[in-house]
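This entry is set out below.
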Amino acid sequence: MKSKLKIGVALSGGGVRGISHLGVLQALNELGIFPTKISGTSAGAIAGAMYCQGFAPKEILKIIVETNYFKFLRPAISLSGILKMSSIESLFQTYLPHNDFAKLKTPLAVAATDINIGKAIYFSEGELILPIMASSCIPGMFEPIKIGDKYLVDGGVLNNLPVEPLEGVCDYVIGVNCNQLPEDSNIKNMKNLIERSVIMSMNYNVYSRKSKCDFFIEAPGLGRYGVFDIKKASELFQAGYDQTMTYAEENHSLLELSETKISQEPV
């Protein structure tokens, strides 16, 4: 029997659209493809952490819907951000009680941005919850997260598809992007302007890393969903699932990563 392939999956940020990552992971698992390491930014870091903890994709979807994740965000009494993320720390503690990268069932890397030195940094050991929160801190919308002497914001600012932690340690890398930009947009207010500008910037650094991926999955039509449109959770999950199944039909080489396929091959 062939030795087990090391398969890395990089998950982009994209707000609620990150729920589509769960559909992708569900489809990959049904195809017999199980990541041996995941890296993620923002929503990708959250989905990745829950998956690496051992929750099945459909379980994670249920948790997100039932807890109404976004109700845990509250106004920040500060000039540095509109919303405060510390209130969701207790939610993460419920599902990641050990708060330790080393206790995850599958290795995980989380990308964040050091706002003072202007560099992307990656967490893969030690405390787990604060790096996830830092990775999700959209600048201007959330207060930065302080870890040690670093002030951290959303990893997507500099790296919204963190393939780097997978390079050299994985045989194959699957990139998954959910951060699409609609071709036309009706800019009604400053919030819309900021959101669109942030997505444009993050999209650029996603596509600049596409060539680093052996496979790149991007469900069409995600741009029509709002970043906080939690009511569309089931649709987003299905979009990721359907696109992965379609991608597998069109790219048979993806199926070569299946554990079922590997186990059937002679030594």
In short: Residues 7-257 form a domain with the Cytosolic phospholipase A2 catalytic domain fold (CATH 3.40.1090.10). The helical segments are 19-30, 43-53, 57-67, 89-95, 129-135, 190-207, 233-250, 259-264. Residues 10 and 163 are 6 Å apart (CA to CA). DSSP finds eight helices and ten strands in the chain.
